[in-house]
Specification:
The complex is a heterodimer of chains A (441) and B (297). Chain A is mainly alpha-helical. Chain A has 16 helices and 4 strands. In chain A, strands 1-2 form a two-stranded antiparallel ribbon. Chain A has a two-stranded antiparallel ribbon with strand order 3-4. Chain A starts with a helix and ends in a 31-residue tail after the last helix. Chain B has 297 residues and is α/β, with parallel strands linked by helices. Chain B contains 14 helices and 11 strands. The chains are: A mainly alpha (441), B alpha/beta (297).
Chain lengths: 441, 297
């Protein structure tokens, strides 16, 4: 592209940026000493943002037009690595808490195992669960968090009201969520595409509204407190005589419970993964993918599409139910604030960013999205640049948005966009994401 | 020439009517499809051919009419009437298609179809397309996928059989070396053949093809004729096809049914149809028999 044209386009982009920045950045309100709102003018902010956009656009145009010999676009993760990555990362994950414990000690490692390890793994599991519904079956579910809530409240209520143990409640929570998934699915799955998305969105809101307002049942906004904590198959993680530490002759430390929770969610996530992988190679899994590709063709081949959708919905809900009961046992407290639409949107973003249908992509996206949020909290040195009132974690949503825009341009089909065939005759060749359909409902 | 569609009907269509609002797409159409016949359904654009297909395969629920399919032998009229009165969908290999949802028509009555605009699973490989078509057989073998989940050996055997069957059809349509490529990456003619093979993987007794030769070149068209004839000869599947390409219709069909404006205007052997003045008029809108005969020849 000629320099002059690039300059012209860059100037235009700068102008647009200036126009957008004027109402958003230039005029700000601040409280003065006497607590009055005063208008503050920040013309330099507008100039800086316009200049940044202008230069950025210019560089993009110049670099994009440079005559590069582009070979076929290389996959983000090389095939050899893709093959090794799962087993290596599973091993690394099993060693992670122990390494952290020996390296940083029980106090220092808590943050890493809890905030990074457990938190990310919850979202990996939820992402994998939703991947069945959205990625494989192609059903857009905007209310996935409802099933997470069903699982969490199932454990919270059964344990506090009836004293049932976590190990009994875990499968019950999964079953409960799955039956809610099937119950919602039955009338709704006749809808397609946008209509299905809206109804699932509404269902998510209904569950949250019921939990907030039906105080007799769920104790409303106040939530359910003092939910029994997780035990080591009956041995509580306490300093008492019959506690975990005493039984195994260890010195009591709070981190034991966190490490146990880490392994618990790791195993739950791996179960989700293995079940999904196996199902993909079974008739029902192939039918899900066929459904995503073309529902009418499915019906012409004698596939009961309602049942197929229902199994996808119920199974996805079941894994959310498991994750929900884990959430409740980890927090010891649940209230409706944990199950907002924002959660559904985050889980969906993980699935979409990861590449719909790709297990590895979803795991990577969960690490980036959830780990990224945690990393933002760590960037305290930024306070020295931007002043002490600067909180980097407040910019989370802005960065999410930017990441989405960048993905749209750079990898519109997600991090891992190719699809692995479920069966092959001579040679396994991945299917390019360009041919794979996204599903219409 | 024997008239198999009268002596040994597979599918009996009686008084079929389908309306969309004020438009009558299919108007009181009755004919029979003979067992082992290749039946061609022809007619000008908008004559109601695809609507009739959609009624047979359950994608539309007809307003009126009866579609009785006998999987084996000839169903006595009193049996069909008894089943109609009983209110159930099928009994002893006799099916009333107008009562069944689309997927049951393929699964239980074994009527398979292809589409005018190809509907393959483009993001799945050629082999996967053929394996998905054997969904119901594999579902049974895998105990609704539950036994398959724990590695049930019977399922592995069933899956191997499914792959062997897919392999058979791949050899037949000449796509064995492309088995692991995505279906969406195949050339147009190969996609048409694959869609037919996929429909055949459901073990149909009646195969309904909606314009299988559309967009094919003369050589591919000739190959299609051979494929259809061999399906009929080897699998014993009866074929009902919509076609505009008269070279296909006249060469391979035993029985031709002509629709115009939703009505049945002629029904007979290709030779009879070629000389039927109503057909000639429908196709050309004129009475110039010589010119019309040239088109239909």
């Amino acid at each position: 592209m000629p320099i002059t044209r690039a300059l012209r386009e860059a100037a235009f982009a700068g102008l647009v940026a200036a126009g957008l920045a004027f109402p958003i950045l230039t005029l700000g309100t601040e409280l003065d000493q006497s607590n009055r709102l005063v208008l503050e003018q920040r013309w330099s902010w507008m100039a800086i943002s316009a200049a940044l956009v202008c230069v950025g656009r210019f560089l993009v145009l110049i670099l994009a037009s440079a005559p590069t010999h582009r070979v076929a676009r290389a996959p983000l993760v090389s095939p050899a690595l893709t093959r090794l990555l799962p087993s290596v990362s599973v091993m690394a994950l099993f060693l992670f808490p122990l390494v952290m414990l020996f390296w940083l000690g029980p106090q220092g490692s808590l943050k890493w195992i809890n905030n990074y390890g457990v938190q990310i793994l919850i979202y990996v599991m939820l992402g994998w669960g939703l991947n069945i519904v959205v990625g494989l079956a192609g059903l857009l579910d905007l209310g996935y968090v409802a099933f997470y809530a069903v699982g969490a409240y199932t454990y919270a209520l059964l344990s506090t009201q009836f004293g049932l143990s976590f190990w009994l409640c875990l499968p019950l929570a999964g079953l409960m969520a799955a039956s809610w998934g099937a119950m919602l699915g039955f009338p709704v799955l006749r809808l397609r595409g946008d209509y299905l998305a809206i109804v699932t969105l509404a269902f998510g809101e209904i569950v949250s509204a019921v939990l907030t307002n039906w105080t007799d049942f769920s104790n409303g906004k106040a939530g359910i407190m003092s939910i029994p904590r997780v035990t080591f198959f009956g041995l509580p993680f306490t300093a008492s005589e019959n506690g975990f530490a005493a039984t195994f002759g260890l010195e009591f430390q709070a981190i034991h419970r966190t490490i146990f929770l880490f392994y618990l969610i790791l195993v739950l996530a791996l179960i989700t993964h293995v079940v999904t992988l196996r199902l993909r190679r079974l008739p029902v899994g192939r039918a899900w993918e066929a459904l995503r590709e073309d529902e009418i063709a499915c019906r012409s081949l004698g596939i009961n599409t309602v049942n197929t959708k229902l199994t996808a919905f119920a199974l996805g809900a079941m894994f959310a139910g498991f994750a929900g009961s884990f959430f409740a046992v980890r927090q010891g407290f649940v209230n409706p604030d944990s199950f907002t639409f924002m959660e559904s949107a985050t889980i969906l973003a993980i699935v979409v960013l990861g590449g719909m249908g790709s297990q590895l992509g979803v795991a990577l996206a969960a690490v980036v999205m959830v780990g990224g949020t945690e990393v933002l909290r760590e960037l305290t040195f930024l306070k020295e640049i931007f002043g002490s009132s600067f909180d980097p974690s407040l910019y989370r949503m802005l960065l999410f948005g930017l990441a989405m825009v960048v993905m749209m341009i750079w990898r519109p089909r997600g991090l891992i966009s190719s699809r692995e065939p479920s069966v092959f005759l001579a040679q396994k060749k991945n299917v390019s994401g360009a041919l794979v359909q996204e599903g219409h409902g | 020439m024997t008239r198999r569609w009268l002596d040994a009907p597979l599918l009996t269509i009686e008084h079929l009517t389908m309306r969309f609002g004020g438009l009558t797409a299919v108007n009181d159409v009755s004919f029979t499809v003979g067992r082992g016949d290749i039946t061609a359904l022809i007619g000008p654009n908008g004559a109601g051919k695809t609507t009739l297909f959609n009624c047979i395969t359950g994608f539309y629920k007809p307003l009126q009419g009866r579609l009785a399919l006998a999987r084996e032998g000839v169903a006595p009229v009193q049996d069909v009437d008894a089943l109609t009165r009983s209110g159930s969908r099928h009994k002893d290999g006799l099916y009333l298609l107008e009562r069944m949802p689309d997927f049951e028509i393929t699964r239980d009555a074994h009527v398979a179809r292809t589409f005018q605009n190809i509907r393959l699973f483009s993001g799945m490989t050629v082999l996967e397309n053929l394996v998905v078509a054997q969904h119901n057989v594999l579902m049974r073998a895998s105990g609704l996928s539950l036994l398959g989940l724990i590695g049930w050996p019977r399922f592995h055997a069933a899956e191997q059989r499914a792959i062997d069957k897919a392999r058979f059809w791949l050899d037949k349509i000449g796509l064995t070396d492309r088995a692991d490529d995505p279906a969406g990456a195949l050339p147009y003619g190969a996609q048409r053949r694959l869609e037919i093979a996929r429909a055949m993987c459901t073990d149909p007794v009646l195969l309904c093809l909606d314009e299988p030769a559309a967009g094919l070149n003369p050589r591919e068209s000739a190959e299609l004729n051979d494929l259809l004839l061999s399906i009929r000869a080897e699998q014993g599947t009866s074929i009902l096809l919509i076609e505009h390409d008269m070279s296909v219709v006249m060469k391979i069909s035993d029985h031709v049914v002509v629709l115009d404006y939703g009505r049945l205007i002629a029904d007979g052997t290709p030779d009879e149809i070629r000389h039927d003045p109503r057909v000639i008029a429908a196709y050309l809108g004129v009475e110039d028999a010589d010119e019309a005969a040239g088109v239909l020849a």
